[in-house]
Design goal:
The protein is α/β, with parallel strands linked by helices. Helix content is about 40%, strand content about 20%. It has 11 helices and 15 strands. The strands form 3 sheets. Strands 6-4-1-10-11-12-13-14-15 form a 9-stranded mixed beta sheet, sandwiched between helices. It has a 4-stranded mixed beta sheet with strand order 3-2-8-9. A two-stranded parallel sheet has the order 5-7. The longest helix is centred in the middle third of the chain and has 15 residues.
Length: about 300
């Protein structure tokens, strides 16, 4: 019960720099969060599937270098990880192109050894996943993943350990909103904490306000919901209270890639270490503000360590 297990996909990342050239890195929404959790001192493991190629080996090495336990990562012969390409506009807003249809991460819960991954989820201190995670799997894979979440929720620790970031991307669902809504609803029923982005909730559900997002999600039994709303801050519902937590300072972003992922890590690590919801939201804002001032989803370790109080 000591580890947080993050579930999803790590991809090869190509990001265009100011000189027009592309730099190679690795990232993926829940993997980004796993790295930032580990940097905050949280004992964290990552669950995905990779290939037997050089890029997959480098991803495993990156996770190990960041103190992320990569033992829940089967390697599939002849397969290679997905790839995404980032371009940013003058305001720092990013756009993505993906090549991931045959990525091994899609078969995590159908590959040999999936039972060990499911068992790790049941035994985890917390399970962190996203709407992108859900979009990866076939119906069989989804069924196995959701069953593991349900088993984790039936333990003595109750429903406190399943953390869901909506992170809705329409293209990942082939435009099938009904299927996305059905799958998201099943995930919400098995979650205790949600960390959605308001823009995504508007796209999927048509929510009129962050307060409407909270009202809808709490009907599924969630006791803690934090709605991220960019420069407008976050609306936090926890301990029976709903409060607005504004950003501490306005920044002009260089690259918004990883903003939500890093906020989630800042919030969740603070909560796991005993902070209250408002304090945790401020920690999330601080980390996200630093991340969006640098290119790429995962900022250099030296910069991150320089943020810590001495």
């Amino acid at each position: 019960m000591s580890k947080v297990v993050c579930v999803g996909e790590v991809m090869v990342e190509l990001a265009r720099g100011s000189d027009g050239r592309f730099g190679l890195a690795y990232g993926g929404d829940t993997f980004n969060t796993a790295v930032y959790l580990a940097r905050a001192g949280v004992d964290v493991a990552y669950a995905t599937a990779l290939g037997d190629d050089t890029f997959s080996s480098e991803i495993l090495a990156l996770g190990a270098a960041e103190a992320v336990d990569m033992s829940l990562v089967p390697r599939l012969r002849g397969r290679v990880p997905g790839l995404y390409l980032i371009t940013t506009d003058d305001a720092g807003e990013r756009s993505f192109n993906y090549w991931r249809d045959t990525a091994p991460a899609r078969t995590l819960f159908e590959a040999e050894g999936w039972q060990q991954v499911a068992a790790a989820l049941v035994d985890a201190r917390a399970v962190y996943f996203s709407g992108i995670t859900l979009s990866l799997y076939s119906n069989q894979g989804l069924g196995r993943f959701l069953a593991a979440l349900e088993m984790a929720g039936s333990t003595t620790q109750g429903r406190r350990r399943q953390v869901f970031d909506g992170n809705f991307r329409p293209r990942n669902w082939g435009g099938d909103l009904n299927r996305a809504r059905t799958v998201f609803a099943e995930a919400l029923k098995r979650s205790s904490m949600a960390l959605p982005t308001f823009e995504d909730e508007v796209a999927l559900w048509g929510d009129a306000s962050p307060a409407a997002t909270i009202e809808r999600m709490t009907t599924y039994g969630l006791t803690e919901v934090v709605v991220k709303n960019g420069a407008a801050g976050a609306l936090v519902h926890a301990d029976g209270r709903t409060v607005e937590v504004p950003v501490e300072r306005a920044v002009a972003p260089l690259d918004t890639t990883g903003a939500g992922d890093s906020f989630n890590a800042g919030y969740l690590s603070a909560r796991l270490q005993g902070a209250g919801p408002e304090e945790a939201a401020r920690a999330g804002h601080r980390l996200a503000a630093e991340v969006i001032m640098h290119r790429g989803a995962i900022i250099p370790r030296a910069i991150h360590e320089g943020m810590r109080p001495h």
